Amino acid sequence: MTARCNVVVLISGSGSNLQALIDSTRSDDNPARIRAVISNRGDAYGLTRAQNAGIATQVLDHKAFDGREAFDAALIEAIDTFSPHLVVLAGFMRILTPTFVRHYAGRLLNIHPSLLPLYKGLHTHQRALEAGDAEHGCSVHFVTEELDGGPLVVQAIVPVQAGDTPESLAMRVHAQEHRIYPLAVRWFAEGRLCLGEHGAMLDGQPLPATGYLIRT
Question: Most buried residue, 37, 69, 116, 206, by most Cβ within 10 Å?
Answer without folding.
Answer: 37
